[in-house]
Amino acid sequence: MIENGASQGFVAERAFHGHKMKRFKNLISWHGLLTLGLLFGLLLEVGCSKKRPEPKEVKIGAILPLTGDGAKYGQSAKKGIDLAVEEINAFS
Length: 92
Fold this sequence. Notes:
Layout: H1 2-47, H2 71-91
């Protein structure tokens, strides 16, 4: 007798949960489409702006071991940073 009552409760709970999920999916579809549409419009507006700001000078800093046991790694990293700066400035 207890098992029968327990299984009926489970069936009723699952049916109620299914109803909630259907409402939740409908809610997601309307609000989701509206949200995606607004987000797309906002990104389109921002991405297609007419005037872009002038590029500014950017300062780059790094803490590197230039002396001592790790100097060879620090010197290599510094050369890599200098090379990257040259390449970026060449394309600007």
